[in-house]
Amino acid sequence: MMVTEKSRETRLRRMAERQGLALHKNRRRDPRARDFGLYWLRWLDSPVPELSHDAWVGYPNGFDVDQVEAYLLGKPVDPQVADELERTQGNR
Question: What pLDDT shows up at residue 91?
Fold first, then answer.
């Protein structure tokens, strides 16, 4: 059975919410933009996320959908995700 991108994104949003996170997708429409199609995770318990970069996982570089899934499953697939796991889990 083939999983569509939308259903995968919905599943990841639910996974993130169960872990106290919100999944945000970049709104850029230009496929040539550096951050087109990237995602960020935000801690839901952060009081003012706009003012604190610590509330955002993956800031400023963002994650692709595979990296988001790896982060939520606790299985890093590359050094960037491993660094994010250590940094954010150390704060929580």
Answer: 52
